[in-house]
Amino acid sequence: MRIQAAVLRDPAKPFAVEDVDLHDPGPGEALVRVVAAGMCHTDVVLRVLPRLAMPMIFGHEGSGVVEAVGPGVSRVRPGDHVVMSFDSCGWCAQCQTGAPAYCAEFMARNLSGSRVDGTSGATDLTGAPVAARWFAQSSFATHAVATERNLVVVDPSLPLDLLGPLGCGFQTGAGAMLNSLSVRPGDGVAVFGAGAVGLAAVMAAKVAGAADIVAMDLHPARRDLAAELGATRVLDGADPELAAAIGQVDHSFDTTGVTSVMTTAVRVLRTGGTCGLVGAGGGELTLRPDILAGRNVRYILEGDAVPQQFIPRLIELWRQGRFPFERLIRTYPLDDVNAAERDSAEGVTVKPVLLP
């Protein structure tokens, strides 16, 4: 079917909204009319990291309405309101033990831009392939083909224009606190970076009952917002004495991907504490053994969440007023995709959400 999508043809150039032909849903897949799609750092990180297949449609925090399903689909049906999250195979050891974010096929299913069989999912008006399977959705578009496994059915009375970011960014930050690090009442938490993922972590740490929640960022407005959302202390991330200002905490969480910040995140841990890393960046992370003594460092994918279980949990917390993620969102028409990217990079907008 003919759709409109924000296509990236060159990492050095802007997105272009184009007409493309989206392939029909195949076995285990569903066609979703996209209502909204959050923009995450992962959607633009290929501008600085090694490129994948281009041209590509990005977007992996979509929400919308199912319009059609392919053969073998039984858990969703046309008319269902859904949030699109990450894909997984369902049969590997990690999936079978409730850890789909560590699926043996995670890279192929989510970060290649293509189906596992290598097909692109769409073509441009010349018939050339367009990669339309970013996180098995490519939701910077009017329509997306997703898999049954990365769809989460939600109550149709909920505002779909807000829910898309639950599929990745908010899930990652909140899941890091509630799942990966198992923050407990009275714990101390340090969150490095008060963007969408970091602020979701701040809100979730408050939900968990953390007594000391320290949030760091370079942007004063984001520090102010962190304080409003639950941080007990906010610090300038550029402070040369940042580690001393933080003190020691039970858990630290880096969203920046900056190696010097990651090192600080480890240094501020109490003995036995854990540092969670989610930021994607370049460079080598070097840690001295004496810094690591009795401490733990782990990389966290998707907040260790099972989306079909965790996203409804976040929605319930939102209904209770305990996870007010709507305060992070600013919406943009799909045609303004480049303005959304710019505002996010400059710190003007915490979580851009595109409305096709």
TrEMBL record:
<dbReference type="InterPro" id="IPR002328">
    <property type="entry name" value="ADH_Zn_CS"/>
</dbReference>
<dbReference type="InterPro" id="IPR013149">
    <property type="entry name" value="ADH-like_C"/>
</dbReference>
<keyword id="KW-0560">Oxidoreductase</keyword>
<dbReference type="InterPro" id="IPR013154">
    <property type="entry name" value="ADH-like_N"/>
</dbReference>
<dbReference type="InterPro" id="IPR036291">
    <property type="entry name" value="NAD(P)-bd_dom_sf"/>
</dbReference>
<dbReference type="Pfam" id="PF00107">
    <property type="entry name" value="ADH_zinc_N"/>
</dbReference>
<keyword id="KW-0862">Zinc</keyword>
<dbReference type="InterPro" id="IPR011032">
    <property type="entry name" value="GroES-like_sf"/>
</dbReference>
<protein>
    <submittedName>
        <fullName>NAD(P)-dependent alcohol dehydrogenase</fullName>
    </submittedName>
</protein>
<feature type="domain" description="Enoyl reductase (ER)">
    <location>
        <begin position="6"/>
        <end position="354"/>
    </location>
</feature>
<keyword id="KW-0479">Metal-binding</keyword>
<dbReference type="InterPro" id="IPR020843">
    <property type="entry name" value="ER"/>
</dbReference>
<dbReference type="Pfam" id="PF08240">
    <property type="entry name" value="ADH_N"/>
</dbReference>
<comment type="similarity">
    <text>Belongs to the zinc-containing alcohol dehydrogenase family.</text>
</comment>
